[in-house]
Amino acid sequence: MTLWFVFALMTVAAIFAVLWPLSRRGRTDTGGSEVVVYRDQLAEIDRDMAAGIIGAAEADAARIEISRRLLAAADQSGRETPVQGSLTLRRAAAIVALVGLPVIASSFYLALGSPRLGDFPLAERSRVADANQPLANLVAQVEAHLEKNPTDGRGWTVLAPVLSRLGRYDDAVRAYRNAITYAGDSADRRADLGEAMIGTAGGVVTAEAKAEFERAIALNGDDAKANYFLGLAAEQDGRKADAAALWQKMLAKAPSDAPWRPLVQAALVRVGGVSAPALPDGAMAAAKDMSEADRGTMIQGMVDRLATRLKTNGDDVEGWLRLVRAYLVMGERDKAMSALADARQAVANDADRLRQLNEGLKNLGLDG
């Protein structure tokens, strides 16, 4: 309130500074004062001549010059009439300006501004978000903002996945629900909500979570997260064949570089589904006309060649991940674990490659 009061005083002062000259009566023209001065000079000449200070000839010359100036001044004074505006009209204009300007400004602010926006104290304005401060502190700041602005859909959308990563699944569920309410419904938000519900249930796909995944599929039939967790729900219900069919359908439709493909392939191996390592396009075309035995032989040969190449070029992280995945798909878990150990040994001295390898193995469900 103090700030607005100061702004109001400044506005009134600025208006008065402009309108004050208009509120005063116009001064009468001073042209007549020159006539009086010249007449006084004529009288002074007469006094000087009477006192013998100047002669008659000098007095006549001075009278002629002063009379000429007197006539010119009198003529100018007669032709120029001071222009004076109506004092009442000027005062009315001042009142209209004093009242009208604030009313017009307020109307524009109510239409275009944010009069209901909460205060932003100086302490908070000077508090710049620091990327180096703990994530929990940043989350607390966002939560404090959302307590004052509970309808901020964008804020809930940003906060929800962070809460999930922090393991605060109950809070994440509430944040996702608010994001859907205030930012709009979508397949991604429904699938994320279902995943947070699984977190609250300790990894179990509950009926409530399954309902959210089904809503996501209704919005987008190809949503990868929703399809994966619906397959997981089938697996947890003991319907492994249904889970395998759903995951096989996902792999058949997905691009070869889909980031979630290794996770689904590992899940498919877990339920005993039939799958094969990804093959080059030419090999895929050739394998279509082969018998199951011949196709298996061809795949085994490709895997063996990949394993041989990696023994001489152990820096190929993607190659190691393909080899481990292939062994898992083929049901040869011992070979997969052996390849895993060889891969870690090969990239042990390269921190970036080791991190990339560990992330890929985690996607395959091999954390250890």
Automatic annotation (TrEMBL):
Keyword Transmembrane helix attributed: yes
Query: Where does the record place the Cytochrome c-type biogenesis protein H TPR domain?
Result: 133-259
Which Gene Ontology BP annotations are present?
cytochrome complex assembly
Q: Which Pfam families match?
A: TPR_CcmH_CycH
Its domain of life?
Bacteria
Q: Which InterPro entries match?
A: C-type_cytochrome_biogenesis, Cyt_c_biogenesis_CcmI, TPR-like_helical_dom_sf, TPR_CcmH_CycH, TPR_rpt
Signal peptide per UniProt:
none
Where do transmembrane segments lie in this chain? Answer: 6-23, 92-112
Q: Which UniProt keywords apply?
A: Cytochrome c-type biogenesis, Membrane, Repeat, TPR repeat, Transmembrane, Transmembrane helix
Protein localization? Cell envelope
Its cellular-component GO annotations read: cell envelope; plasma membrane
Does the record carry Acyltransferase as a key word? no
Q: Which NCBIfam families match?
A: cytochro_ccmI
What is the protein name given in its UniProt record?
Answer: C-type cytochrome biogenesis protein CcmI
Name of the encoding gene:
ccmI
